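Thread: fe (ii) ion complex, take 2
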Amino acid sequence: MLCLGIETTAHTFGISLVDGTRQGKDAILCNVKDVYKTEQGGMIPSELADHHVAVSQKVLRQALDVASEVLKKNLTVHDIDCIAFSNAPGIGNALRVGGFVARYLSVITNKPLVPVNHCIAHLEIARLVTPAKDPVLLYASGANTQVIAYDAGKYRIFGETLDMGIGNFLDSFGRLLGMGFPAGPTIQQYAEKAVEQKLPYVPLPYSVKGMDVSFGGMFTNLKRKIAEKAYTPEQLCYSAQETAFAMLLEVSERAMAHCQKNELILGGGVACNTRLKEMAKLMCEARNATGHVPDNEFLVDNAAMIAWTGLVMFKAGIFVTAEKADINPYERTDDVVVTWR
Ligand code: FE2
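Output below.
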């Protein structure tokens, strides 16, 4: 059984095909994407949609070619059994492009559609590509920062940001230092230089409120410190990372204790940060838990997670026709009733 998945919640236009008859990572036949990037500034929704429209045909062609190569037969869209698309949550302009491509493919192939919640897909792909069975997910990306785990029929949010996502915080901070988008990898490099140079940590506002975190106070404080010119950019990058990641892992650890779960997985583009991975590993070791980190390809936004989650949902009887398919930019993780586990 083949499922084609389309990811378009934010900067990534991706298409993947998964094969339900294959096991583990081998189920993923292809995972093709084209990512919207800027030299300066962030994402402009209308330009983002233009990008997704412009690359859609090319990405679909590449995905079919790669999958055909793997299966050693010439695949067309008519060989696909269902079409999954990320219908929520995300930037409306971007979601609309994915929704349109999915509906178009559904109409010409007469195959059902599976609307997939992007945040849940980050968790489901980790269950496919790592040994984790019932983990707590620390989902750390640009717009989303949530600690999610399965409990009583839903993936529930046990902690989240009260203001900006961790990635948006890092991008906004990086922009103040003249970095392009995404700024996270450059901030990590600066932080590594600070460690090499043994630059001291600069105390920053540590904001954990109950099970939630907030980054607004730290951002304002960093803005002031940059203007004061009393610290090097490297020192500020190092201190921002240490503070923000400690906040995320404190909440994750508390969620693990509350849910009595002993597996942690990471998801989201910020989880590619090697310091966050290292701190997560240390936290898990300290509480005799296991930490699993999918390959970077499955941490960042990708269509394989949409295709895989769509396939699992389809097998459980969850699908709609093209007329009923819609996007839902503000759907929350715990709005979705999980009947496929
Ligand atoms: Fe994501």
